[in-house]
Amino acid sequence: QVQLVESGGGAVQPGRSLKLSCAASGFAFSGFAMHWVRQAPGKGLEWVAAIPYDGSTEHYADSVKGRFAISRDNSKNTLYLQMNSLRVEDTAVYHCARVGPATTMFKFFFDYWGQGTLVTVSS
Amino acid sequence: EIVLTQSPGTLSLSPGERATLSCRASQSVSDSYLAWYQQKPGQAPRLLIYGASSRATGIPDRFSGSGSGTDFTLTISRLEPEDFAVYYCQQYGSSPVTFGGGSKVEIK
After folding, report:
1. B107 CA to chain A: closest CA distance, Å?
2. B53 — contact with chain A (CB < 8 Å)?
3. Is the pLDDT of residue A102 over 90?
4. pLDDT of A93 above 90
5. Distance CA A63, CA A86 (A)
6. Which of A60, B5, B27, B76 is geometrically suited to a Cys-Cys bond with B19, CB 3.0 to 4.6 A?
């Protein structure tokens, strides 16, 4: 069955960096675009970043553009999110998610999600 | 960007009752590109509905979605104990994709 397992979260000070990983299994990882979506404590969901199946492009929400970088290693079935210049408002659970069928890089929903990893940015 | 407003914020119902959740968009959602997810505490969101009315794989037929334009509805015909959760809508017809704030279905 499809499994997405995030890791790498933790507590960091503002301005510092953190790198998240998402290990995928149970499907042909190299054939799917992948995304990061975050959820601030007690709040709703916010799309963060996307990368196509071959890693050829990257797309970001305005709130993280220039600070975060999404990447993937298809040989390791792993998705990454490098987060730099972290802010207090980046505090959230970060989920990786697989796109659903018949979607594009700009019009997508998610058919599988990981449970997420918590990032806390605080001084 | 399209703002999605979900109502009610909390719905208190008993098992066996019918739940009707609303998702209203600030502008028309093109091609009815609207999805619904269920999330339980500490768990990943689970896809229920996409394209406004298509059930995802393995989703029981007590879950149904309807609507178009700016008004969408998720209906749970008869609540089972495992259906008590938070439900989110998401539009994917316009960039950036956006989510509603969620509706909680709690046991009365």
Report:
1. 19
2. no
3. no
4. yes
5. 11
6. B76
Q: What is the 3-state secondary structure (H, E, C) of chain B?
A: CCCEEEECCEEEECCCCCEEEEEEECCCCHHHCEEEEEECCCCCCEEEEECCCEECCCCCCCEEEEEECCEEEEEECCCCHHHCCEEEEEECCCCCCEECCCEEEEEC
Cβ contacts from A onto B, under 8 A: 57
- Residue B59, classed as helix, strand or coil, is coil
| pLDDT tens per residue, range B59-98 | 999 999 999 999 999 999 999 999 999 999 999 999 899 9
Q: What is the predicted pLDDT for the residue at B16?
A: 96
Residue ranges of alpha helices (H) inside chain B are none
Distance CA B51, CA A49 (A): 22
What amino acid occupies position A76? K
What do you get for the CA distance between the two ends of chain B, in Å?
36
Q: Which residues of A touch B98 (CB under 8 A)?
A: 47
